Amino acid sequence: MKFLIVSGMSGAGKSKAASILEDFGFYCVDNMPVALIPNFAEICMANQGKYEKVALVTDVRGGETFDKLFESLSKLEQMGCPYEILFVEASPETIVHRYKESRRKHPLSSGFIPIEEAVRNERQVLKSVRDRANYIIDTTALSTAKLRDQLRKLFASGEPAAQMSVNVVSFGYKYGIPIEADLVLDVRFLPNPFYIDELRHKCGLDQEVYDFVFQFQQTQDFMKYLERLIAFLLPLYNEEGKSVLVIAVGCTGGQHRSVAVTKALAEFIRRKGYQASESHRDMTRA
Q: Whole-model pTM?
């Protein structure tokens, strides 16, 4: 069992690191009282197979001294439970900027203590933990993607990286753009089957409607350029660390053109080797 203690400066990115570790298969617990760590480790060891990788986030929010943390770690050693410590830090200027930007209160800035002094005090309090850390990551100049890459090298090497999944959803502009969309494509310029009497009450999944939409050269040209764009973007989004990409395809009512294009685009993405699902938000609306 891999047992990881995640600690470090408030505002340095411990919670972000924990969420990334979850993507790598860690069971993460944030701000557990340090006195409970041995008990929790005992439960994990008794359920081998269920808790193979565990990460516990601990910091000054608990209001306890780190002497108690070291006492708990000593108990882990006595139990035969190996552990490692990951320390996450950033420059004081970066942490102060992050707190001022988020307008959150630093856990040590109570009363009249300015945030700059609170950050300095916390760094001193955490020195003993930092000195015992197996890994130290400075997030001052790290994007989320670079942080993910560092954590992958440390804790997920040799394991296949989780691949991004893609959800392609059709919609009607008359009902609004899906709020979860990352990319929005407007296909209202394509010929509209709505004006063909025998197609009006069908949808883009019906072969007659699908064939109508794709019989036009402008549809074929559009799909050619769209596929080139998507083929270019997918590996970049995946490399950036995006877990789910939502592509929304819209026409006027969300029943004909957008449905047909969504179906074709999802099939193309699957052929490129990505997990792709398709959904049709407004296809059954009157």
A: 0.62
